[in-house]
Amino acid sequence: MRVLVLLGPPGAGKGTQAESFARSRGIPRISTGDVLRQVARAGAEADRKARALMDAGHLVDDDTVIGIVRERLAAADAARGFVLDGFPRTLVQAEALDLLLDDREPLVIVDIEVPDETLAQRLRGRLVCQGCGTPATVGMQACGKCGGTLAPRTDDEFAVVQQRLKVYAAQSRPIVEYYRRRPTFRSVDGDQPQEAVAADIAAAVASVVWGRQ
Ligand code: AMP
After folding, report:
1. CATH code assigned at 77
2. Deepest in the core among 47, 54, 63, 70, taking most CB within 10 A?
3. What is the distance of C-alpha 67 from the center of its chain?
C-alpha cells in the first residue's frame, strides 16, 4: 500500500500529474479541492461558506478538510494506495495525515517546484471539467475523462490567484520543510513539459521505493 503526496503551489500541475500517476497505477486520486467543489454545489449552509472561502482564495478550515480526507481514506478503493492532491495544505493537516496513516507504509512526498512568474501565467489560462473537476490539457475541447464541459475555475481570476499564491507561501510552504528531511521526500522541476514532469515524478517515486528495499 503506497501513498503519494504531491506538493506544490497552485498552478504547479498537481491535479494533472496526480491524475495521470493515479491512472497509470490503478489507484484513486484524492483531491480535497474536487470534493469541496462538489459539496459546495450541493448547497448546504456550511458548504456555501466553504465555497465563499474558496472563491476568495482562502483555505477552508482544517477540521472540515481533515474530516473529508478521513472519510475518503476509509473507502474500499483507497485500500491499495492513493495519490493526495491539494492535501495537506497546513502543518495541522500534515500532522493529522501522519496520524491517519499511522499503520501504513511511509508516505512518499514529491514537491513540484515552479517559479512564481510561470504559475501566474498558467493559472490565468487553465480550464477544468464542470462535471468531474478534472483539469484539461491545452487544446482539449471537452473533458478527457467524462466528456463534460470545460470552463475556467472561478478562483483563477487575477486577484484571487495572487491571494492563493500568498496563502500558499504563508501556510503551505512550511509543509515542504516539515517533510524535507524524510528519506521519502523528493522534489522535481515542474517548469518543464507535462510529460517530462510526469517522468521525473515516476523516477522520484521509484527511487524512494528502491531506496527502501
Ligand atoms: P485546489 O483544487 O486543490 O486548488 O483547491 C481549491 C480550493 O479549495 C483552495 O483554494 C481552498 O480554498 C480549498 N482547499 C482545497 N484543499 C484544501 C485543503 N487541504 N485545506 C484547505 N482548503 C483547501
Report:
1. 3.40.50.300
2. 54
3. 16
